[in-house]
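Re: beginner question about structure tokens

> Can someone show what the tokenized structure looks like for a real chain? I only ever see the sequence side.

Sure, here's an example I had lying around. Input first:
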Amino acid sequence: MKKSDGFLDFENPADALRRKILGFWPWPGASAVYTSKEASKSVRVTIAMAGAVETSNPSSLQTGTLDESLNVICGQNALKIEKIKPDGSRLMDFADFVNGQHTKPGDTFTKIQK
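And the corresponding structure tokens:
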């Protein structure tokens, strides 16, 4: 395996991404780029634990966007991040990441370009 095998594509179903995150932790890790809409700041992150949650109605948000519950919209359903590791930082609960980054609905997670 190589590191690029772990790059997450949020066009995929949430359950497939959840399985990839579980299988790729701790190496090579399931990685993406988090971008704050308000601060226009990006940081590479590795998602260590997440669950798939059903979305009751099709979202008008693009894939990779955080909804009102701070779940990541995927090709099918949404991903509820539980543990995350920003580059250069420690593994933390997603709630701590949200507080530190001032994460809000509309912020995005995007696939890392090779």
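Each token stands for a local structural state, so reading them left to right follows the chain. The domain at 3-110 is CATH 3.10.25.10 (Methionyl-tRNA Fmet Formyltransferase; Chain A, domain 2).
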